[in-house]
Amino acid sequence: MSSSVTAYQELLAAWRLQAKANPWLTRAFLTTLGLLLLLVFASALHGLEEQHRAHFRLANYGGLAGFAATSTGALLILFLGRVRPRLQDALLGFAAGMMLAASAFSLILPGLEAAGELLTSTGLASAVVVAGIAMGTLLMLGLDYFTPHTHESTGPCGPECQRIGGIWLFVFAIALHNLPEGMAIGVSFAHGDLTVGLPLTTAIAIQDIPEGFAVALALQASGLSKIRSILIAAATGLLEPLGAILGFSMASSIAIAYPLSMGVAAGAMIFVVSHEVIPETHRNGNQTMASIGLMGGFMLMMFLDTAFG
Predict the structure, then answer these.
(1) Alpha-helix residue ranges (DSSP H) falling in the chain
(2) Mind listing the pLDDT tens digit for each residue in 113-156?
């Protein structure tokens, strides 16, 4: 018990040092986190009417679909074995393209439309979505700064990262990917609009398959057994149902929170693509294949959204 308390105290001390090292980011992150938690709290106080309960169930199903897709991707290592880095980077590029297109066509554009219905000025409507994108960016910047994890390009980062095993730092990094995806799913179903929620959830589920496969492969390459690699890779997908609950709660509190939350989810997803996924696909010198995969994913998601959205 005392060792657990000591570890907790050391982590708090590390967080304080991390905060002092970058005070502007700390203040911006805490302000953003506080505002988002206020929206979640307002939603909890308001309660769920019968119609909102149906929307909440849709958000939960969407989050579970993301978890199931991640698990399916992880299971593929039982049948596919090793995959050449060139193909792996192309698949991750494909996932990045789908996330970028989903952010634009399933979050930002519907967010602008929803804000325009609430506000008389198109400038104010745009400002609401832009503010949401900025908040999503600050949220992910703060989580990236204060969560111990690892990047292939820069190595371990975050407080107390030197005391955590490399495998778990990698798992935390992947979990940070899945949180904004879950939030996006929850936000997209906040009004029960299937033309927004279904294409977005489909896109995220499709791109979760190669992502889950890549995570399981990386864990296996680090020395874990196939079964443990599959279980840990699948567990990272649990952040998607949790994120869906948070996203739904944020977006369903007050009217203006819906377009604002659309921007938050879009900003968080675009940040992850730029900060994590694209650099990873370029690490092995396969930029061309990764870019072709990205464009293919972008075009597929644009088609899904415009044809069925």
Answers:
(1) 2-21, 23-46, 50-75, 77-80, 85-101, 109-118, 122-146, 166-188, 194-221, 226-236, 239-251, 257-272, 278-282, 287-308
(2) 999 998 888 899 999 999 999 999 999 888 887 776 555 555 55
Q: Say how far apart CA 260 and CA 183 lie, in whole Å.
A: 13
C-alpha closest to that of 197 among 69, 107, 267, 263: 107
Angle at 268 between CA 264 and CA 272, to 5 degrees: 170
Q: Round to whole Å and give the CA distance between 182 and 70.
A: 12
pLDDT level of residue 1 (50, 70, 90 thresholds): very low
CA neighbours closer than 13 Å in the CB half-sphere of residue 149: 19
Q: In degrees to the nearest 10, what's the CA dihedral of 140, 145, 149, 154? A: 100
Dump pLDDT digits (tens) for 232-245.
888 888 889 999 99
Question: What's the Cα-to-Cα distance from 130 to each of 59, 216, 232, 244, 260, rounded to whole Å?
Answer: 24, 36, 36, 21, 8
